Every structure is written in structure tokens, then in C-alpha cells.
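S.,

As promised, the 4'-deoxy-4'-aminopyridoxal-5'-phosphate run. Input:
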Amino acid sequence: NAANTEDVRAPASLETPLSVPNKMLMAAGPSNLTPRAAQAGGLPSLGPMHPETFRLMDEIKEGLQYAFQTKNPVTLCLSCAGHGGMEAALANILEPGDTAVMCKNSFWFDRASDMATRQGARVVPIDVKPGQPLTLEAAEEAVAKHRPRLLFVVHGESSTGVHQSLEGFGAMCHKYGTLLVVDAVASLGGTPLYTDRWELDVVYSGSQKVFNAPPGLSPITFSPRAMEHIQSRKTPCPVFYYDVLSIGDSWGCFGKRSYHHTLPVTLFYALREALALVAEEGLTASWRRHQLAAQRLHDGLERLGLRLLVEKPEHRLATVTAVLLPDNMDWATLLRTAMARHAVDLSAGLGPTFGRAFRVGLMGTNANPKAVDRVVNVLQDVIKNPIAAA
Ligand code: PMP
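Predicted complex:
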């Protein structure tokens, strides 16, 4: 009987047990899971409308308000990677025909400008040399000239290792009726960020970086000013899944609770525990620990004769460092040797740093002196004894 036969056979690959190596994840992300987050992810599933799920979401919201340093009622996490946070931030603010001014100094400009263009916006880049941050003066010049709907900047510029200062940017944007959208995927929790104090309108992040939770969640927060605009936009958010007016309902942001989509609760458990760890340590202690780890890394790299891409120490990001490739070594050899001999994961360059630099991440639990010393020792060995390509 044809109805009882299979046209496609069960794959032989699934007969072998799942095998996952334990790598030291010192790349630009993801970072290693903490045991507490990993264990939480194995707890029983719950439905999206169960009261225990609502309580869990409320706890995550409070943890995120702490991490974002905000009282914004519309603070939640989206069920998607950091790219989804970026797409949601832009899709909720932009309407076709709007202008978006974007700092162009990194790979993330390419992604954000692609998304904004697909959403029908006109993108105006502010050209900044990769490895350098956008100055408030250059930002104001562009915002005053174009009066855009939004200004997009990346706080923790992970493709070049730049720390983008945000002080003054919010107030400047608001003088011109512009909203400030900030990518904090690679920085939230690891370097100071004050959503309310700095008047940031939309900030999004990722679960897999400083929080040491599994990839797949994107924390996001919207200021009252951003919500006012969203509530009065002429066209609905073009992507149903990312429409904060409906997803905010499932997070209880507007009073009632309604089903939006089946929530990845096991990821929520892990993020909840990750946020509990941040709260236990304290944000300021976490920021300081990341700063000290980065300083130790930068000193160690310089002792090896390596040069950082970002020249000015005050522009260097604590969580991700871009290091110029040593002479006579290509990035593939460097990464391959570190992984094959030491099970240490490092990143290649990305966008403007591709082929020029490699990147080291110090995020969450990995931002500690022991991990830093291990990376420096590994790099010393890799430079001395690279494994040639097969
Ligand atoms: N923005 C920045 C600054 C990032 O570092 C990353 C991840 N490397 C992203 C956005 C995208 O995040 P994801 O890979 O989770 O989509």
C-alpha cells in the first residue's frame, strides 16, 4: 500500500548519539553558557498563556529593565536572534518614505541599511572610518540637515571593536524630532548603558553575548517617545511578528495579555537565570570586571607584539577586541590552530576588518583574568607554531 511507504528514508546520521564538543568560546559571540543557564534550559515546557509563564516574563522584564537601566514599560524579549531585534527596531519606527540616518563604520551598517531600505526608507549614511566612533558633532550635522525619523548607531561595534559613546546623542536627536535607535547586542551588561539617562528610544540586544544564555532571544526596550510615534504611525508595522503593539500584549505591556506566538519558554528560563546572575553581581561590578579583563587582554596582546585595530584606548570596546593580523599569518591559519590545538574559538574579521584582523570576545563569564591569560598563551603558541593548511 503506497500510503504506508516512505518516499524519504530516516537518515542514518540520526542513528548516532548527539555529540557536541566543549569549546572555549572567546569569539565575538556566542559566549559559553553558564551552568545555571544551561540547566534552566532543560526544565519542563509551559504554554504561552500559563500563569507561571506570565510570572516568568514579568521577572525577565524586570531583569531587562535593570540591564537596560530603564523604567520603560515596553521592555521585553523577542523570540529571535539579534538580527530580529534590529529588524524589529527599524520596522516599528520606520514607514515607507522615511529617512534613516545611519553611522557607516561597520558591518552592522550594511545589515541595518539593507533592512531599512527593504522597509521602504531612505538611508543616509554618515561615513566614519572603521575603527573610529561617530562624534556627536558629525551626528548633529547630519540630523540637523536631514531631520530623519531615526538615527541608528551601534553601541558595541563588534566588527571593529569600537565603543560608541552615546552621551548627548538622545537629547541631540530629540531637538530635531528624531528617534535614537541603538544596537547593544555586543555590549549590554558588559559596558555602561543608560537607556533613560541618555534618552535612547529603542535599544535591542542578544541573549548569547554578555548574558551567557543560549542564542535565540533579543531583549528590546522602547521609550515612551518611541511608543507615541508607533501608536500614531500611518501604516501598521510591516512585519506582524515584530509589531510591538501586538507582541507587547503577550508581555502584558499594555494591561491585558493575549496570545501572540508560542513562546520559547525554555530559552526564557535560561535568560531569566542569566539575568538573575547579572542582578546578583550588580551591573556596575559587571561593567568593571569586563573593563579589567579587556585591559588585561590588551596589555597581553601588546606584550606579544600584536596591535589593536582601535588606536585610542578610550574608543576600545571591553567586550570585543579587534586585533590586526600578525605579519605572515592569515586569519584562517590563526583560527584553525587555536581551535585544533586548544579548542579556543576566535573570530575572523567581519566587514571592514575581514582579512585585516581577528577578534577576541570577553563576554559575561568569559571576562575573567584566567580566560584572558589562556587566550594570550594560546595566541603566543599559535603565532610560534601555526598549523599549515591540509
Ligand atoms: N549587532 C551586533 C553589534 C552584533 O555583534 C551581532 C552579533 N554578532 C548582531 C547585531 C546580530 O546578532 P545575531 O547574530 O544574534 O543575529
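The chain has twelve helices and 14 strands. Residues 283-303 form the longest helix (21 residues).

- D.
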